[in-house]
Each structure stands twice: as C-alpha cells, then as structure tokens.
Amino acid sequence: MTKESAGGRAAMVVGAGILLSRLVGLARGFVISAYFGAGAESDAYTAALRIPNTLRNLLGEGAMSASFVPVYSRMLAQGEERASRALAGAVLGLLMLLVSGLTLLGIAFAPVLTDVLADGFAPAQQELITKLVRILFPMTAVMVLSGWCLGIQNSHRRFFWSYASAAMWSIAQIALLLGWGSRESNLVTLAEWLAWATLGGAVLQVLVQLPEVIKLVGPIRPTLQRNATGVSDVLRNVVPVMLALGVAQISGLIDLQIASHLSEGSTTLVSYASLVALLPVGLFGVSIAASALPDLARDTTGRSLDGLRERLRGGWQRILFYIVPSAVACIVLGDYLIGILYRVGKFTAEDQRIGHWILAGYAVGMVSVGSVKLMSSAYYALQDYRTPLRSSMLSVVVSAAAAAGLAFNFRESPLAAAGIALGAALGSYVNLTLLLAGLRKRLGPLYTPAMWRGTRRIALAALAAGAVGFGLHVLQERQWPTVHPRIVGPPILVAFGVTYLLVAWLLGSAEASRWLRLRPRAVDRPEANGRTPA
Q1: Based on the number of CB atoms within 10 Å of its own CB, is 303 exposed (0-12), middle (13-18) or buried (19 or more)?
Q2: What are the b/e assignments for 377-410, b being 16+ CB within 10 Å?
Q3: What pLDDT, in 10s, does the model give residues 188-234?
Q4: pLDDT-wise least confident of 17-21, 81-85, 528-532
C-alpha cells in the first residue's frame, strides 16, 4: 500500500468518525432550534458554552494533537513502549492538575468573565450566562481528558472512535430536550437543564473512549513525573501550541463580543452557521490533517523530507477536491442547508435568510481554513511551533479588525452578523499565505503543474454544479415558493453533487471516477513521485 493510499484510507476513517459526530451535532442544533429558536435564551446558552469551550479547545484535542502526538508517535515507532506509557501517564497527570485549577477559577470568576466577554447582552441575559457558565465550566476538565484519549488512539492509528465519540456529547442534550423539553415552558429553566445535560454528555464522551485506550496501552496511572522521557519535549511544544490555539480562541471570543452588540439572535445564528461551515472542514480538512500527523511525524525521522512533501501534496489535493464544491454549495444553496437543519418550531424563515448570509461569509474562507489544518500539521511534524503561532496572531488581528468594521458599520441591519463571518474568512487567508511561504522555503514548491491542472478541474466542476444548483433554486422560488426547504432542498443539493462529480469525471478527475465507479476519461502524466492529482 502506497503512502497516499494509506493516508487516504486513514483520512476516510477519521472522516467517518467526524461525519457521525457532526451529523448528531447537527441533529442537536435542530432540536435546540425547535425549542429555543434564535432568541435571548439561545443566545445566552451559546455565549455561556463558548466561554469554557475556549479552555477546552486550548488544552484538549488541539493541544494533544499538536504537541503530544508527534512525540508519542515517534516513541512508538522506535519501539519504546514502556517509555511511551510513562509519557502518557505524566502528560495526563499534569493536564488534570492544570485544568482542575483553571476550572475552579472559572467557576469563581464567572460573573467577571460574563461582564468582559458578553457585555452587550441585557442584564437578565448576563445573569443567565453567569449561571450557565458555572454549570458548564467543569466540562473543561472532562473534555481535556477526552483530548488525551484522542491523542493516544490517533498515535496508534485508531481514528474512528476517537472522533465518533463526540456524538455522545450531543446525544445527551438531544435526549434531555426530547424527554423533558415539552414539560418545561420556562425557557430560562430549560436552558439550565440543557447545560447540565451538556456537562453529562462530556462525561459520556470520555467513558466510551476509555475501553479502547486501556486496550491499546493498558491501565494508565496519572503521574506528575516531569523527568519522564519525552515530557520535556511535550511541555516545550505545548506552550507555543497553546499560544497559537489561544490566539484562535481569542478570535472566537472577539466574535462573541461583537455579536453581543448586534440584534437579538445574532449570537445563535453565527453559531449555527459556523457549525454548518465546519462540517466539510471537519470531514475533509481536519480528517486529512489529523490522520496525516502521526505519519508526517514519522516522515521527519530520516534525512530526506521527500516523504513529507509527497504526503502534504496528496493531502492538500484531496482537501481541495471536497472543500471547493462545499464552499460553492454553501454560497449558492446555503438557505436550503440552514432551512433543512434548523427551520422548525421557533426558528423562522427570516432566521433562515440571515443564517444563509452568515454561512456564505464563512464559506468564502472555507478553502483556507481547511488547508491551514494540514499546513499546521506539517509544521508540528517538523517541530516548528513558532511559525503557526506568528501567522495565527496576524490572522486574528486582521479578522477582528475586518469583523468589527463590517458588523458595526451595518449594526442596524439584521445581516450585520455576516460581517463576523467575512472577517474570519479574510483572516484565514492571511494565515494560509504565511504558512505556505514558510513551507516553500523548507520543502520547495508544493504545487506542481499537474496539481494546478487538477485544481482547475475542481474549480470548473464546482462552478458548473453551482450554475445547475442556482438554476434549480430560481425555478423553485418561482414555481413553489412556499414549499418547506426540507422538501425541495435535498433534491437540489443531490443534483448539485451529481453534477460536480460528473463534470469532474468528464474533465479527467481520478477521485470523481472512484466515487462514480467509472474508469477515468483522462489521466494526467504521473508526477516524479508516481502520484496523479485529484
């Protein structure tokens, strides 16, 4: 099996796990929108969840993948099983000590956090946010443990359940609302119940991963042994990783601050739209980057970086094949996506329209966000954590300035929240540009002529699919304007997808031919490494 095929298969496994968790997550959003709509209580819950999630993202999956997995994977490749187990126990113990203290501080200073990060909300909303933050903050410690479990499994090339387990987090919330939501007419009380279910779902997410982790490495005893082999490398790496992730989280908190000053429902709609935009990014960007990281780390053990460059090229082309049409679909047909997923109960047609504009803004940056995941993994494999940090810092400055300028200049418009999404898109392209410049200096040109031809195929096929989708959308608006998007949307989205695959196949895409189970019409001349692009 070639490196490319092995990487593609691993990415498919990661993608399957992410798909399961994201589909259940979308079902969670559907149920929440049915009970809360896009109103004051849903804004409060979304804001409260964002605050502890910041620490979770800092110390959990992102930090473990970037700082722990490369070191742990190399130790496994060198057969150092006992030392790797000691490393896992020491990292777990140090992490739990850190997050326990931060959790207590978060609970104690919840009112201060609310005042600083959500000052644009009404006093009653701020009081509810503070109460919800105190319920949700212990989730930070639990989800950090989940990130540690994910790092262990990914290092052993066990990808599916580490990502699919996140479905348990959503299932707990869905069960709460379906079981007790109709019994409680007070939305404030229901939001409190939902927060407790969110915390319980985090516990379930960890519990379902532990059997696999124990099977892989045996019982792990948390320690505080900073002198264990590899711990110093992880600690040295984790600081710049946390700073880089912290910069990204600051961007999210800035977005929350901006949204709190906009019209009611803006915070909720930004959250819903970002969830839809992150689905293809997670399926194709995160899955390819996450599955590639352990192998990228192994590729750096020799003197030549040819293997790393080859894996990076193949992964990037796969990302573009899926994310470019996803971005076009979100821009052209995003109202169907928002309507299918959230148009129920208290979620109105106007909410759907505004959500589409916000989703289109995020879609502009979808290609860059997905690509950044893979490029950052290459830097982490090379043990370079400062370059992603610097590029992330600059991108956040650009993103925040653009988001504030766009949103506040159109504050009176319900579409002002789309400025937040456009700002994030602009910042992500700054990030990608800087990362690519650094990799070009180290690895040489990443994009070959054959890859450019593959990219043109992807763009032409996506534009053709967008034209078909737009035409069907116009026809539907004229002939059946009042039909619910859950009825007319799926056939139009299917037509978009089929058109994309057929046109890509006609243009010679090998990836499209695999989906259609047809022989490729044309194959590019193989590269020097024997690989042909998508």
Answers
A1: exposed
A2: bbbbbbebbebbbbbbbbbbebbbebbbebbeee
A3: 999 999 999 999 999 999 898 888 888 888 777 888 888 788 888 87
A4: 528-532
Q: Report residue 135: phi and psi, to 5°.
A: -70, -40
DSSP string, 171-222: HHHHHHHHHHGGG---HHHHHHHHHHHHHHHHHHHHHTTHHHHHHHH-----
**CA angle, residues 429, 434, 436, in degrees to nearest 5:** 95
Tell me the CA distances in angstroms from 278 to 12, 121, 143, 206, one per residue in order. 17, 26, 19, 23
The DSSP 8-state label assigned to residue 1 in this structure reads -
Q: Residue 435, SS3?
A: helix
Torsional sign, CA 438, 444, 447, 451? negative
Structure tokens that stand for 321 in this block:
């094949």
Token pair of 181 as six digits? 């939501």
Mapping DSSP onto H, E and C, the string for 23-59 reads HHHHHHHHHHHHHHCCCHHHHHHHHHHHHHHHHHHHH
For residues 356 and 330, the answer to whether their CB atoms sit within 8 Å is no
Cα(250)–Cα(431) distance, rounded to whole angstroms? 15
